[in-house]
Amino acid sequence: MLLGYDDIDLNAHCAVEDRMRRALKRAVAPDLNLDEAAGINRVLTRNRRIERAVEHHLSTADGAAMPRPAPLPGTQDLDIAISELPPVYEPPAGDVARIIAIYRKQQLAGE
Questions:
Q1: pLDDT tens digits for 2-21?
Q2: Are 49 and 61 in contact (CB under 8 A)?
Q3: Rg of the chain on CA atoms, in Å
Q4: Number of H helices, E strands in the chain
Q5: Please, what sign has the CA dihedral across residues 98, 103, 109, 111?
Q6: 20 vs 86, which has greater pLDDT?
Q7: Contact at 8 Å (CB) between 73 and 10?
Q8: Out of 31, 42, 96, 99, which could bridge 38 as a Cys pair, Cβ 3.0 to 4.6 Å?
Q9: Which tens digits make up the pLDDT trace of 19-69?
Q10: In terms of Cα–Cα distance, which of 35, 32, 27, 21 is closest to 106?
Q11: DSSP readout, 15-49?
C-alpha cells in the first residue's frame, strides 16, 4: 500500500519511456563538461539541446531498439524484498555516446 492508496499504478505515474529519458539525460550530462555557473539562459539552452538530442536518437532505429527499463511493481507488490525490485536502469554506453555526438553537432550548428 502506498500512502493509504491501494490501486495506484506506479507505471502510469512514472512511465517506462519517461524513466528511460531521464536516465539518458543524467547519463549524457556529465560527459559534456558543462559549466553550471554559466547563467540560467545557457543552462536552459543546454537542457533543451540534451532533450532534442535524446528525442532525435530515440526516433532512430538504434534508439527504438534500445532496451527499456523494467516496469515498476504494482502497489500490491510493494512489500516485496528490495532485491526483487527491477535493477536501476543504466542506458547502454553506445546510445549515450550517440546522443552526446548529436548534442555536439547541434551545439556547433547553433541550434
A1: 455 455 555 555 677 787 88
A2: no
A3: 17
A4: 5, 0
A5: positive
A6: 20
A7: yes
A8: 42
A9: 788 888 888 877 776 666 667 777 788 888 889 999 999 999 999 998 888
A10: 32
A11: -HHHHHHHHHHHHHGGGG---TTS-HHHHHHHHHH
